[in-house]
Amino acid sequence: MKLTGFIILTIGVLFDLFGCIGLIRLPDVYNRLQASTKCVTLGTCLILVSVMIFVGGAATAKAFLTGIFILIASPTAAHALSRASHKAGISLWEGSVCDKLEEDKK
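The chain above was modelled as a monomer; its predicted structure follows.
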C-alpha cells in the first residue's frame, strides 16, 4: 500500500512540476493558464490521494473535500482569468491558429 502511495505521490509531484515549467516556458497567458490548470489540478489531486493512502482517518475526509474544491475552483478561476484577459485586449500568441471567442462575437 505504501508503494502505491509513493507512486501516486511521485506522479502528482511530476504533474505539478510540469505545470510550473509550463508557466515559465509557454508564450502567452492563455497557454500558460491551460498548462497550469490541467497539470497542477491533476498533480495536486494526486498528491491528495496519496495523503489519503498514507494518513487515513479524518485527514482522508479533509483531503477528499479539498480535492473536490480544487476540481471545481481551479478550472472556474482559469476560465474567469482567460475571459478577463481577452476582454482586456491581451493578444494571443502570433503562432495561435484561431480565436474562437472572437469568432463567436461576430
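Residues 28 and 62 are 35 Å apart (CA to CA).
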